[in-house]
Amino acid sequence: MPVTSAAPRPALAGQDLRLRYGRTVVVDGVSIALEPGTVTALLGPNGSGKSTVLRSLARLHPLDGGTVHLDDGAGERSTSLLGPRELARALTLFTQSRTSPQGLSVRDVVAFGRHPHRRRFAGLGEADRAAIDHAMALTGIADFAARGIGELSGGEMQRVWLASCLAQDTAIVLLDEPTNHLDLRYQIETLDLVRDLAELHGTAVGIVLHDLDHAARIADSVILLDRGRVHAAGAAAEVLTSAHLSEVYDIPIEVTSDLGGRLRIEARGRHGARAADRG
Each residue's pLDDT tens digit in the chain (279 positions)? Predict the structure, then answer.
């Protein structure tokens, strides 16, 4: 059964975020609230600031302005006041830029996710092993748990790192393009997993995506960024419109709905436009 709440408070909220790379402001005035049991997608062209916002929520990119607060049920606290281990018990971040450690098995790497829950120098406990097994089952990598990391393809390694994040077992999950490098089957399975995290486990999910159809498929709310600012924010159907998307991506984009109400998004390049004219 899906987890429901009468009035969920944001599990993690960034307010009026201002972020820089050197002297260049790349994000200005962006606010985002991640609520339990919901999926919030960050969309926008390359360079719009999507991944930078996500990294700032995980305290991996310093704030030039604004605040990030965590609400764990005991009241709101600034994430700047949390120690690294306390923050890692609250949220996990899946990123694209991870090195592949050599000489380790798949299971060893997934076990990295249990580090915030373990006492110093302590071995894996029963709860740790259960979380590792569950994460590997969710991501479809249990069958090659004993294989060496050096034997894996890029897509397989992507799933291993995702499993490591899930083994961390946090109430907030931040995902930066988790379907990148995956074939069609595992793209869809990853999207289904994201929905399961929200609906079945009450997880607050923030996800960066490039594929607009993927966002339409799984997002409860969408923040559409353009050059570091919020162009539109709200329910997916309100943000993923032809007008909003065409303006931000600077290309004609047609948005329609099928009989089931599912959005269909199609970018119309020169050849697509000609084919439509001929039809």
Answer: 344 444 456 699 999 999 999 999 999 999 999 999 999 999 999 999 999 999 999 999 999 999 999 997 777 899 999 999 999 989 999 987 677 778 899 999 999 999 888 776 667 889 999 999 999 998 889 999 999 998 988 888 888 999 999 999 999 999 999 998 888 988 998 999 999 999 988 999 999 999 999 999 999 999 999 999 999 999 999 999 999 999 999 999 999 888 777 888 998 876 655 555 555
Sheet-wide strand order for 39-43: 91-94, 172-176, 204-208, 39-43, 221-226, 229-235
d(CA 198, CA 232): 23
Q: CA-CA distance, 209 to 266, in Å (whole number)?
A: 16
Of 173, 178, 226, nearest to 50 by C-alpha is 226
Coil vs helix vs strand at 261: coil
- Looking only at the bridges linking them, the beta strands covering 39-43 and 65-71 are unpaired
Q: Which residues contact 58 (CB under 8 A, 6 or more apart)?
A: 87, 91, 93, 174
* Residue 195 CB neighbour total at 10 angstroms: 16
Residue 15 to residue 214: CA distance in whole angstroms: 26
Whole-prediction pTM:
0.87
Q: Is 37:202 a contact under the CB 8 Å cutoff?
A: yes
Question: Residue 162, class by beta-carbon neighbours within 10 Å (0-12 exposed, 13-18 middle, 19+ buried)?
Answer: buried
